[in-house]
Batch of 4 targets.
Target 1
Amino acid sequence: MKSMYTIACWLLSLCLLQNAVAQSGYKVAAHFPVSGNGGWDYINLQPASNQLYIAHGTQVNIIDKNNGDSLGVIANTIGVHGIAFVPALAKGFTSNGGSNSVSVFRLDNHAVIDQIATGVNPDAIFYETYSKKIITCNGRSKDLSIIDPVAHKVVHTIAVGGKPETAVSNGKGKVYVNIEDKNEIVVVDMNKMEVVAHWSIAPGQSPTGLVIDNDTHRLFAGCDDHLMVIDADNGKVVADLPIGAGCDGVVLDPALHYICTSNGVGNMTVVKETNKNQFEVVENVPTMRGARTSCVDEDTHAIYMPTAQFEPMQPGEKGRPKIKPGTFQVLKIVHE
């Protein structure tokens, strides 16, 4: 009996130890209220600053990443989706899906200084460091607008054969684009300014968020309830991992080797990248319903997600639930 009791205690201790190790160290530490109503999309942190930018209906709200204090608003960004920065030029850029345009603003005072016509419904936007161009993913015209951030004009348009959702770069001339309605990633050669490959990510469907680890050459595509890991050199599927439903954003913390998916169902799936071929789901961290996009502060390891509270769905009601007025907020998730 004593021997059985000892074994039972040992097994219990082992289980507790495994559970302790399995925890990711993330938790929601703050809820920052943000003024204004309407929907939201991407959130982004200006490099080397405390300024957090949130795409919010017809404007961009700017808050302090530490305490949530309001730092300004960029108005008249109709149907804004995303924000990109070119610190060397002291400029920022917003993708305005409702007006098929990009707004150019100054980083020092947030004043809008120009508007650039793009393809139809520009969604994700980012600064591509190899070509030194701003790129928008245009959902309805199914192409990319390649923008000169100095001249403020579109210099190339690249058809991608489907709805581009998010794009990332390897910093060496290749851009990878999630094609949401084709369940694939296309590869764009920034020297040729054309698509050079189409990679299926089956069984992943409706890819949205996308990040790249340029050390391991791995792409991480957030799908409906899967995280697909793709070899960025040849397009092969390396891993298929379960995540929470409603993912619209993926972030990578290179120091922690964590890939985190923000899931609209109300949690954040944390995946550990042990090496280029070994991945493990560590935890589903509770967040809030609707917190589906995110950005990471690599200096502090904090992750930020916009969301709001919702009205109850009525019987027979379809579509997205209505947002409760005055409840828009940003979650600050810290790593301890």
Target 2
Amino acid sequence: MADFQPKDKAIQLSHGGGGKEMNKLIRELFFAEFDNPILRSEEDAAKLDLQGATAFTTDSFTVSPLFFAGGDIGKLAIAGTVNDLAMMGAEPQYLSCSVIIEEGFSLNQLTTIVRSMAKELKQSGARIVCGDTKVVPKGCADGLFINTSGVGRILRPNISAANVAPGDAIIVSRDVGCHGAAILMAREGLTLESALQSDCATLWPVVEQLIAANIPIHAMRDATRGGLSAVLNEWAAAANVGITVNEASIPVCDEVKGLCELYGFEAMDLANEGTFILAVPNDIAIGALEIMQRFGHCEQAAIIGTVSDELPGKVILRTPWNTKRYLDLPQGELLPRIC
């Protein structure tokens, strides 16, 4: 860890002005925590050595509140960008990081967030190689916004929503809805006796295990905004297939169930930040599940459904009462600014 130990000070406009204060902030905080030779070269652009097929993604993070059970906006920014690469079968390599900071923002909190980012980077081995810092007048932002872009080397090509095929099994990596529920608790100031935390986590380690085991992955996607419901509907439309899922097979923790009952939400619609869905041929689904559970720390992973050519473009939910209904895309704004 770096030696930078800020006093309880606030970010000033001068921290984004290009002068001494900005130089000190960047060198003693960002450079110290994200240290690597490419970043330290201080060029206008990072020089990268890219070979073969490459995945590239970008995302912006505006979550409210900035700190929540299980993470913060910094951890979320790194995990979210790395996960987008991992879902394409790409090994995360290089990230950019731009921050927009509101004047008056706590330097202590900024330091905590940056160190959280540095810690999460170690989960994938990716490096931040370029960035930008902007400070805007008080009232022009809500504390802190972060934009990250990521580049990764594709190790397993042809992973695509369009490749979901009849005969595939649908697997979820863990219980769903924890991030959305944790954000709801933090935002509403709920003090229920609960150990509920966001699932915010880097997914590359488990994906790497699946690739190393040569599992023929047809599609993968992290179930962020719109949750499980959104992913399955997007896949059904992209591949023109029908997907049937068993509600009783979908893992949902008691705390999320309770909050859904309290607020009238569906756990399958709530956001996740460390949960992914994959489609694999049915005959190797058990093997994929065992790899995830034994080597990927996905003890709650479960096979939740199948793919067919019936009712193409639709997702059918089979309830515990053996009835069926359409599982539609979420509607309305359930939880604004969950990422």
Target 3
Amino acid sequence: MSSSPAPSGNGPVSDPAPLSLCAREPHVPADRLVAEMVPPPRFDSVRFSTYIPDPNQPSQTEAVTVLENFAAGLGASAGPGKRRLFGFGRAAKKAPSGPRGVYLDGGYGVGKTHLLASLWHATPAEPALKAFGTFVELTNLVGALGFQKTVQTLSGHRLLCIDEFELDDPGDTVLVSTLLGKLVDAGVALAATSNTLPGKLGEGRFAAADFLREIQGLSAHFRALRIDGEDYRHRGLPEAPPPYSDEQVTKTAHATNGASLDAFSPLLEHLARVHPSRYGALTDGIKAVCLTGVRPVPDQSTALRLVVLADRLYDREVPVLASGLPFDQLFSDEMLNGGYRKKYFRAISRLTALARDAGALANAR
């Protein structure tokens, strides 16, 4: 597909018809899943130097310093199958007692993924020896390769970064915890993030305590770094833009090169037919997503699939222009107060940011 930049959105309605996500059924080979375990395009160029700490939140500055030192400590060379320990070179005779992993604990939008990606970039190792993926992508990898093959594939890595570690699915948490145990034994360094729930932000290390408890025997290998602050996506920015009309969305989709246009309800039905591990491939080449008739999602399974799509769109910086209800009305009160609420709050935050990005396309009409 063309990688040329999208125009400003002011072309004639007679331009070629927009793409459709519903018309796509991508098939992704397992080796692509492994090769794509790198920071997503949104975080290609981030570095510790581009992270701007909030001057009112000293924990953010402290986190940068700790992670820079952590990355530098991963420079020691070690061959496959040998134990590689932070800050110790080839001459190290015995394992250090310090932590062999870091866990970034904080709320939404404080820059945890920015810092995690910066750690990946700063670690002095070839890209093939570093892996970066979300918790969901890691479980999808296990599903595609099988547990033992995943262990073999990742055991030769210097570093594994896991973004958005999920604590709400006991089965997957045990699976990943077991996997991490195998990788720690192989000498792989670990780094992870998760989210403190919005209602728990005033309760100290809530997310860190949950994370360390869930990974059980691995907890001693992690140093928890608390990162305080408000969601940067809302810091000094206006409220989420109101939805556009169906006509505006349709015209913008026709006028924007590489845009997709789908009705919301059929798209939700289509997501049920595509495995979430393929949602990234579903958006290949898409420059903007245009949706008509956004409405509340009907059930939990549909909502969780939409969360994964929102993550993939956010990773790839794909703006989302929509008509219907605003994104903060996607999920019912029952969902927002239930066990998956942190996923839904993340999706609302990310879709709102992408809706702001889409404003330039619609306003150019």
Target 4
Amino acid sequence: MGTADWYRNFGTFDAPSSSPCYAEWSVGIADDPELIRCIEQWPHNKRQPLLILAAARFLGAGITPYRAFREFVVANWEEVSRIVLSRATQTNEAGRCATLLPSLAGIAAASGRPLALIEVGASAGLALYPDKYAYEYHRGASVTRLDPQPDTARSPADGPPVLHCTVQGAVPVPSRLPEVVWRAGIDLNPLDINNPDDVAWLEALIWPEQDFRRERLRRAIAIARQDPPLLVTGDLNEQLVALAGQAPPDATLVVFHSAVMAYLNASQRETFRATIGALAAERGCHWLSNEGHTVVAQADGSVVVPEMDDARLQGRFLLLQDGVPVAIAGPHGQSLEWL
């Protein structure tokens, strides 16, 4: 896919339902040969739409028509380039815990043990707290609410984020939150929740109109600051086995990731799958993969689920549990359709 096609696809299919602003900007860039030529001066892995859009927002671009956005980017091109080349799209969406929770709770219940969690591509580690957030699962007019143990030291105004998720099909919504006794993550460049620039970057990665996600981020950061996770710097394929060795042996280990596999090539994905397989055999590790379906390698080498219409998955994630597709998930945790 060429750069212009990449931006047009994002602006036409991925962005419209969540951000009309990003949809307009992305289509505008796709139809702007001069800006495309500038973007193509960057390494290929720096040309992705969300990276330049977030860089502009980080520098102060407002929610404007494309013409004003373009003027801002051109006037600040040197700084935009600096941000793009020094940062990465490390969206740390706590809302994804809502789509992971049914699987995590099911794994904990089946094993009869608490969980030890490792997230690969962890960013600031905010998805490592599924036991600390509140949830509301919506099915028509019915709502199932789950709350963590109350923290008497916190006021309601500073309470945990409430993650809302619309469910379809036989989603195994748990009756209580699983116990997590250990949590750790791996990232090429972990973000520090106590670093103002890193926090500002996390906010810039949230799509412009989604103020509720910014509030959710703020509350999730407050939770993480009370009990910071262990975050390891490095390549997931080089660090995973050693980190897994630090997990408590009396806990059930779960390795999970969301929107990470697109940044690995086919060989790196295959190495990761082999490592997961070895961990499963050696210590009963479970694996949750929450990814765009085009990067999910099946056993036969295909990259889609053969029996499923590709259009059904457009713009959403495919959730696999131990390599088996179990659900279609909203990319920010807003929906979960059980298969």
